[in-house]
Amino acid sequence: MDGSMDGHIISDMELDHILRALKPSDLEDIGGKAWIQQMSMLEELNVQAALEARDGLEERVRDSLVEHDKLGLVVRDMILVEIWREEIMPRILRQGQPESSFQLYMVLFNEANLCNLLETILFHGSTCQSLDERAIDLADYCMRQIHWLLSRDPNQEPSDLGRLHSNEAKLDTPLVELERHNNVIRFQVGLKCLTILRYLTENLEDLPLGVSTRMVITHDVPMSLVSILEEEPWTRERSGCEETFDGHQWRPKDEIQGIHKTEAQAWLALFNLLSRPNTNQKYEIHDYRKAALLRLLGILSRPTPMELPFIESFRKWLLQLQLGSVPSAKPGLLIESVAEIKEGLMNRYRDKFDSIASDQSHIFLKNNQELFDVEITKLIHTFENTAVQKLLKDDDPTHMDKKACVVCQSTPAKNRCSRCHSE
């Protein structure tokens, strides 16, 4: 996998092999050899999909995932890791202090990779439509991450990448280090989920009816999006200076031109839900919701949201709502669907969390970094590909320090992959 394949890191033959090799994981598998190998293959797909999307190439990863019916596997594996993070990891940590955060971090890294892969390939409506009923589980997953964004304590900023990469971080214990990695990853995943949610809202007409019901009735997504637009989790204030998260790190707000891409996704998703018949006819705008929606008029007085082409129409709709001239919802028969992936996994494992955590404690509490060495070496070779280096540079306006490890993103390294630890 050198840099000579015209922007590809995976040949057609390798892609076919990977797709045929992918199998649904079990909770017991996480941290084992087969799971680590599959994690590496999924990261290769993630990077290849990003290259294809950026360069306008034939999107082989997206098409192959749909053709091999593996899109559901990506969603399922992502939810499986979420369950591991919520149920297994805390039980493991109650059994003792980890000698290294590396193995635990790699599991969290896998969840972020899967989310990033979905964010890349679901841009296309046909890919969204191929989710079918699995879109319900994906919508639920996105809302859980968005609720986390809204519930976090802004006074204990969880996404402080500067601290993560600072010399002070070298003094942190593995547990403190893990907590910081977890919060950084969850923050980034939450922002990505706003994009995925927007893609789902654009394709509701072609998804099962239960998906739209889930969004406007079960989750009340419009109200969550209003909160996101008001709280702007991609911004913060530090030492009297306003900062914006650019996808990689926090930068002074005045260095970011135009509307933040995550804010744009939130406006698009909200507009889709309130303007399309299959959702607005189900969504009753009572006094509480009306008051919340009308608060958006204050945000629309700023110049940046007005850059979006549909915003003027949305502003006029809000003014009509203010005057009481928006037609009331006419909810008919509501179909409540079940999130089959999450519910099925919870039913299967609910009584096994303690035993799985006990079985996996030796993997994650000891410094078993060598278990990952082969696959980490493959990942490093992937990131050293010329096309991938250009992708990373183009995607990061600050051109992060090239000496930072491409796997653990630490500079300098401490309890990370064997290669960056040695450099």
Task: Kindly describe this structure.
The structure is a single chain. By secondary structure, the chain is mainly α. The chain has a domain at 1-133 and 341-423. Helix content is 60%, strand content 3%. The protein has 21 helices and three strands. The chain has helices spanning 12-21, 33-55, 60-67, 71-93, 102-121, 125-129, 134-151, 161-164, 174-202, 209-218, 221-231, 261-275, 277-280, 287-294, 296-299, 311-322, 340-349, 353-365, 373-384, 386-395, 418-422, and strands spanning 235-238, 241-245, 250-252. A three-stranded antiparallel sheet has the order 1-2-3, with no helix packed on it. A hairpin with a 2-residue loop joins strand 1 and strand 2 (241-245). The relative contact order is 0.13.
